[in-house]
Design brief:
By secondary structure, the protein is of the alpha+beta class. It is built from eleven helices and 23 strands. The protein is 32% helix and 31% strand. The strands form two sheets. Strands 1, 2, 3, 7, 8, 9, 10, 11, 12, 18, 21, 22 and 23 form a 13-stranded mixed β-sheet that branches. Strands 4, 5, 6, 13, 14, 15, 16, 17, 19 and 20 form a ten-stranded antiparallel β-sheet that branches.
């Protein structure tokens, strides 16, 4: 049974900063930050160490269900985009440069939960001798540097000219009726570049203040993520998904912001993209929902974040008594906002046309509570780093429908990538 102890006399900001510093010495680490968003019931959550972990060899969703049942405690987890081999039978031949396993779940030795500004550390009796040392580290005076300590160049794996040529091929598939929508992504990367992931996390999180931000490490693979998007949340027998489709940059002033918000809300292309994914998510959830409970509480909501405006819809349902939440999770994964519609054919074309393996990008990271409730994000607006090979990667994408204009979609990718470029302190992109 886990024991909880309050951590007093420390601000949330200092505690989060000092906990992030622990990542460099831990093999398993996660810090989830809602950045004061009302979308989360927790202010933030962190965990490190491995009280228990799931064997990733030959792991599947049945293994996940068994592990969750046998470990009724806090579980931190990721599911990579390449799990589509399990969910849909689609195997990716491209190299895994980033090192993340297709899935990984672990019950941390130590967990820090902050809710309503109350900070508590949870641990198991056998780890009590280490608790006070961690509390002292968490409570220490924090000295925070925001200036990049290094500078390097990112290279575009897909050149602008090749991107535009590929986009025209994708549009031909749409014209033929192979697909209605597809999320086409590109990568900016650097090889043999050593970075400080913790320093970059501080900068990216400050730049974005995203509601589903996560700093995550498994062995030598790191994820620095400023996601604005929720994949799937379970509360009791209720499931909630909030796909994003539709983006505008932030304005220079309040008047321009309002104009861009109205433009986004009324753009027929963006609304078309959004509603296609809403229909896809409704269909995915309906397989395990009580009849008549799949609803859309909000359609085309305009949400403003620190760097962009987004068009977000909300889909909810009530889980059938005979259905397991991770069966619904599996059916909805990979999320429609990062694939397209129809999902299977869109994923086939993604493998055909994208120049990289997505890895954890377009996958999900989240936490499972002791009562089985969970909350998982969509891994976008993120940086992946393989410390063993010094490989740095950031990926971005945009949705294509019949109305898409490739030049504008490429510019949208650059808008989305800007905060990652700034956080990395990288010099201009080499294409």
């Amino acid at each position: 049974m886990r024991i909880f102890k309050a951590i007093r006399g420390v601000t949330q900001y200092t505690a989060k900063h000092n906990i992030a510093l622990l990542a460099t010495t831990e093999t398993h680490f996660a810090l989830f930050d809602a950045n004061q968003s009302k979308t989360s019931e927790l202010d933030w959550l962190a965990g490190w160490g491995t009280h228990q972990q799931m064997d990733v060899a030959n792991a599947d969703f049945e293994t996940v269900k068994t592990f969750v049942k046998q470990c009724p405690d806090w579980i931190l987890a990721h599911f990579a985009y390449d799990l589509k081999e399990q969910t849909d039978g689609l195997k990716t031949q491209k190299e895994n440069d980033l090192g993340f396993a297709e899935m990984h779940l672990f019950c941390p030795s130590f967990i820090v939960v902050c809710k309503a500004e109350i900070i508590e550390i949870g641990y198991f009796p056998e780890d009590e001798k280490h608790v006070q040392a961690y509390i002292q580290k968490i409570s220490a005076t924090a000295e925070i540097s925001t200036a990049p300590s290094s500078s390097f160049s990112l290279h575009a794996r897909t050149s602008r000219s090749h991107y535009l040529q590929t986009a025209e091929q994708i549009k031909k598939h749409i014209q033929r009726g192979d697909i209605y929508e597809i999320n086409y992504c590109i990568e900016f990367f650097a090889k043999q570049e050593k970075i400080n992931p913790t320093e970059i996390w501080f900068r990216l999180n400050a730049l974005s203040e995203a509601p589903f931000a996560v700093f995550y490490k498994i062995n030598s693979s790191w994820l620095i993520c400023a996601s604005p998007e929720r994949f799937l949340k379970k509360t009791g027998n209720q499931l909630l998904s909030q796909p994003i489709k539709g983006t505008r940059k932030r304005g220079q002033n309040e008047q321009e912001d309002k104009r861009l918000q109205l433009e986004l809300a009324s753009d027929s292309k963006e609304r078309s993209e959004n509603v296609m994914i809403v229909d896809l998510v409704r269909n995915d959830l309906s397989h395990f929902a009580k009849r008549g409970t799949v609803n859309v509480p909000e359609l085309f909501g305009v949400y403003t974040f620190k760097t962009v405006h987004q068009l977000i819809s909300t889909i909810s349902c009530e889980l059938r008594p005979d259905a397991h939440a991770f069966d619904a999770f599996k059916k909805a994964f990979p999320m429609g906002s990062m694939t397209g519609a129809p999902k299977f054919r869109a994923m086939q074309l993604i493998d055909q046309y994208e120049d990289m393996r997505r890895g954890l990008y377009a996958g999900t990271v989240g936490y499972i509570k002791p009562n089985g409730d969970f909350d998982f994000n969509v891994v976008i607006r993120s940086i992946q780093y393989n410390e063993a090979t010094n490989y740095v990667s950031t990926m971005v994408g945009s949705a294509y429908t019949q109305a898409a204009i490739p030049e504008q979609e490429y510019e949208e990718c650059l808008i989305k990538a800007q905060s990652m470029f700034l956080a990395l302190g990288c010099s201009p992109i080499s294409t």
